[in-house]
Design a protein that fits this description.
The protein is of the alpha+beta class. It has one domain. Helix content is about 20%, strand content about 35%. The protein is built from 1 helix and 4 strands. The chain has a 4-stranded antiparallel β-sheet, with helices on one face. It starts with a strand and ends in a 5-residue tail after the last helix.
């Protein structure tokens, strides 16, 4: 399986390459979302909303508690599928 990566440009001017875990839309928020993880720390995951093309987009990590809850449900579902070998 091919992995996708994004470069995160930090406020301090540095960049960090991250692995894309999933991209999806949540209709009730009319937004696009991404779950991504650190390559250096495989147990550190992040989530953000974005607009337009993910390759050239600003990631908004200022999510509401309701958005975070919905994203966590999706993340857990993806992990469960992956553990059951349904997500290959």
């Amino acid at each position: 399986m091919n992995k996708d990566y994004i470069d995160i440009y930090k406020k301090d001017g540095t960049t960090e390459k991250m692995e894309v875990v999933a991209t999806f839309d949540i209709e009730k928020y009319k937004s696009h979302y991404i779950i991504y993880k650190s390559i250096e720390d495989k147990n550190k995951y992040y989530a953000a909303s974005y607009t337009g093309d993910i390759k050239n987009s600003y990631l908004n990590t200022n999510l509401t508690d309701e958005e975070k809850k919905d994203i966590l449900e999706i993340f857990n579902s993806l992990n469960e599928s992956r553990l059951n070998n349904d997500w290959i």
